[in-house]
Each structure stands twice: as C-alpha cells, then as structure tokens.
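Regression report. Comparing outputs from two consecutive submissions.

Submission 1:
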Amino acid sequence: MAENNVHIKDGTDVNSIMNNLKNRGVEEILITCMDGLSGFLQAIEAVCPHAEIQQCILHQIRNSIKYVSYKDLKKLIVDLKSIYATPDESMISRVRTVLALFYF
C-alpha cells in the first residue's frame, strides 16, 4: 500500500488534482484527511466514492476552541495536551470522557 500526501492549498485545482491522480493509476483512495477546503469533498466523492473522509483533528480543535470562554481556554489547552501525551488508548478514552463532562 502506498502512502501519498497531497497538499492542496487552493480549492480551484481540487478536481484536476483528483483526476490527475486517477489518470496516473490511483485506483482507490481509502482515507482522506481534509480541512474543509471548498470543493474537496465533492472531488473525492466524484473520483473515489468509497473513500472514508475525515476532518483533520487540528482543524476540529481550532473550530471547537472558538466556543470555549476565554477564562477556560488555558485549562482546555492543558487538558488537550494531556490527551496527546497519553500513551494508553484506554486512558485517552477516560480523558475524553472527563473533558466532555467538564466542557459540554
């Protein structure tokens, strides 16, 4: 399985890039990670309709932070860092639960 990272900075070329990949022999894209770039979702669905599409975690965090009050922001950042520093998957689940109860 090949891993190719294609960084798209402008939404105008998304369709041509996707078609170019297909023309060069890419038969299937299994997973894509996107930031909500205009046109990207439609281009992936048109060329690779079975691809799993995920939003980039950094963009999810950035979009979520705007809903946290300024007084809670530093605490949230510390808590988020604890998730990324946690080596054990079961611990990550517990940390997420605690964060969800605290912030939501």
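Submission 2:
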Amino acid sequence: MMGRLRDAGPLNGGTAAKLYQRHVIPTLTDGQRAMATTTLPSTSPVHAGVSFPRKAARWFDVLREARAKKGQVMTPAGYELT
C-alpha cells in the first residue's frame, strides 16, 4: 500500500495528509520527498463541509490531470477513450 500511496500524489483528506507526513515522508529519499502531493476533500460522508458534487469535481480534476500526463483521456463517467 505504501508504494501505491507514494506514486499516487492525491491524498484523501486532511487525516491522510497528516498520516502521510508523519509515517511515510520519513521513509522517503530526498528525491521522493520532492514529489508533489495534493490533499483532496475527504470522500467520507462525515466530511460535510464540501458537497458531494464539489468533492467529485475536485477528484475528477486531479485524476484527469494525472491521466493527461500519461496520454490518456478520461470522461466524467470514468471511461478511458483511446
């Protein structure tokens, strides 16, 4: 799981970001620490400060950017177009 978290960049809410800082960052090399991360709104329904449509839009934006870097296109429904 930690390998995937290092490669992912987006973190699912503030608690995930704090845990990443506390437990993962100390295990990384300097080059790995330089990797950009983005703290996104938590997908938990308990986090009601942001509406579901706004959470989904923010997550979609980050996923679309990541796919674009890999040369893939992502539609709002999540289907890849080749």
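Expected: both submissions complete independently.
Actual: both completed, but the second showed a warning that disappeared on reload.
Relevant detail on submission 2: The helical segments are 2-8, 14-24, 30-33, 52-69.
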